[in-house]
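[audit] Reproducing an earlier prediction to check determinism. Same input, same settings, fresh worker. If the C-alpha cells differ from the archived copy the diff job will pick it up downstream; this log only records the rerun itself.
[audit] input (704 residues):
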Amino acid sequence: MVAEPGPQPYPDVATHVRDELRRAWLRVEYQIRLGWTKAPRSPEADHAVGPEDMGQLFAAARGEPIANDESGAPQVLEQWLEAHRRIEARIRATIDAKIVSPLVELIRTFELSPRQWASLMFALLPEVDPNLVQAYRYLARDASCRGLDGRLLAQLVYDTPQSRSLMARDLSPSSPLSRYRLLDSSGAAQDSLMFRKLRALPRLVYLLDGNRLELDPELAELAELRDGSIDHAQFPALTIERAAAALHSNEVVLAIQGQRGLGKKLLAQIGAAHWRRFVLVIDSKRLAQQHVSVQQASVRALIREQRLLNAIPVFADVDDANVIDDDRDGMPAFFSMFLDEWSGPVAITINRERMPRLHHRPLVHLTLDVPSLQVRTQLWHQVMPALPAGDAEGLAGRFAIPGGVIVAAAHAAEAGRLPTAPPPVATDLDHAVAAQLHQRISRLGKKLPTPFDLDDLIVDDDTRNALVEIAASAKERRKIRDQFKLRGAAGISVLFSGHPGVGKSMSGTVLAKRLGLEIYEIDLSQVVSKWLGETEKNLSDVFDAAEPGHVVLLFNEADSLFGKRTSDVKSSNDRYANLETNYLLQRLERFNGLTILTTNLTGAIDPAFKRRFTYDVYFTFPSPDMRAELWRRTLPKDRCADDIDFDELADKFELTGGFIKVACERAAYVAGANGVNIDAALLQQTVERMYRERGKLSTVGPLE
C-alpha cells in the first residue's frame, strides 16, 4: 500500500493567494446562502446587487456553478471546510519546510492565529478581487459598505457565541493585528466593534503580488532601510567578525562607538549582510523628540517594519537623543520601550567618548578609529582613480578623516562641476573636505579670516622661530609619527600667553594660513553652560568636529575655561567645575588636531594643562623698535603729516600692537571727519585720551 502524499508547501505566492481567495469566497457564499434560507430573497435588500447577480459572482469565483437556491448552503459549507483544512495544512507545511513565502512569513513573524489570519485576509483580499466588496455589501445589506467592518467579521470569522469573545481579544490593542497596525479599526473609541471599519495595512497588498516590501513611507523621516550593497568597506576582519556575531544573538546589544563618519552604520550593515539581513537605521534624535504617546506607536510601527523586512534595528547616534531626556547619562526612554517588545538582535551607534549607561542586555562594545595613513591614501585612490598618487597621499596626510567623509567630499567635488569639466584636482577636494566638516563646528565657533602671513607679524626672534617650528610640526606630524612609530595622539596643543594686544590671535591666523587650514575661534559663551554635562557635550562636539585636523581651534581668553581646579570643594558647582576641567585635560591630550589657547593671565592656567601643551609661547611686550615698526605699518602713509616721528611715538607711549591699531583708527576717524591728515598732535591727543579712559593719570607706563 502506497501512503498518500502529505500536504505540499506553497511553491509561490500566486498559488497561496488563489487558495485564500477561494476560501474567502466560499465563506462569503455560505453566509449569503445561509441567509437566503432564513429570509426571502429581496432584490431591494441591496440597492446595487441582486440575488441573480450574486449567483453569477459565486459561479465566477468558484469556477463550478451550483444551483442558485437555498439547498446550496450545506454543499458550500462542506467545500469551505475542505478548503480550510487543506490551506491550513499547506501553510503549516510551508513553515515546517522553512520555505520563504511572503504571506506565510507574515503569519510566522507575527504569530497570527488562524482567526487573526482570516480577519486580515477578509480585509485585504478585496484589493485583489473588487467583486468581494459587492458580496460584502450584499451580506451586510448596506449599499454604502466599502469593505470589511465589525458586523461582517462577526459573520465570516467569529460566527459562534464561543468565538464572539475572541473577536474583542483579536482586535484589542494587545493583539498583533492592532499592536503593529496590520489591521486598523476606524471609529470613535466608544463605538462598538460591530460598527468599526476594518482596513488592512495598504502596503501588504504588495505581498499578494509576490513583490518585495519597501519601508513604510510614513516612517521615512524616522528610519532608513539599508540593503547589502556595500562600497569602500575598510574594516579589520576581526571587527567584522565580532559585529556579525553580535548581530546574530538575541541576548546582547552591539554598541559601535567612534567619531562621525567612521562607518559605524556601515559596519552594522556588513554584519547584518553576513546573515542575509538588512538593517533599519533609526534616527534616535527624531524618535526622542516625539511625544511619549506618539513614540509608542512609532516604536511598534518600527518593530512591524523590522519583522516585515527581515531587518535588524540600528539606533543611530543615541548620544544625540539622550540629551533630550532628564537622564543624560542613560539610554533614551524609547530604548526600554523598544526592547520590551523586541527580542531580536539590536545595535546602537555612539559618536562621543562617553558611553551611555546601558543595563538592558549584556554589551558587545566595538570602537572604531580613523583609518591609518595608508588606508586613507587607498580610499582616495578608490573614490578618485584619476587623482595623482602624490595628491592622494597629500590629502591623506593632511586630513585624518574617515572613509565616509572622503566619499562625501569626492561626490561633492564632482557634483559641483560641469559635465565637460576635467576631474577635480587636489585643491577642489581640499575645499570639498572643508565644506563637509564646516557645518559641524560652525554652531560653536566663528571662522576667522587669514589675511596675514609671518612677515606681517611684529614679534621678537624667539617667538617668530617658535611659530615657524609649530607650522612645520603641524604640517608633517602625521607622516613623521608614522615613520618614527611615535605613540599617542598626533595633535599639537599650543599656549600663547602675554599682554593684551601683543598678537596672540593674529599669530593663530598666521599659523592657519601657513598650514592652508581654516581657523575657528570657539565662542565660549556657547560652549560653557550652567546645565550639568552640557559644557562637556559642547566641548566634545567641538573636538570631534575638528578631530580630522581640517581646522585650527582657537580658544581666546582660555583661562576662563581652562583655569585652575580648586582643592577646596565647598559646593556642587566646585565639584562639577573640577569635573569639566578634568574632562578638558583628557580630551586635549587625545585630540589629534592643532589647538591654540590664548591667555592674558598665564598664572591662571592650571599647571596640569601646561604640562600637556606641546608649545608654550610667551609673547613679550613689544620693544621700542617693534613699537615704531607697528606705528609705521599701521598708519596710512598717504594720509599722514610729515611731522610724525615714529621712533618718538614708540619711546613716549608703551603700547602693544592692539592699542596702536585702536589709536590709529580713532585718529583716522577724527581726521576724516575734519577733512585733514593725521598729524603728531592728533595722535598724542588720541593716545592721552585712551590713557585717561582707562583711569591713567599720565601716559607713563604700559596701557593695559
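[audit] rerun output stored. Observation attached for the diff report: Residues 433 and 501 are 33 Å apart (CA to CA).
[audit] end
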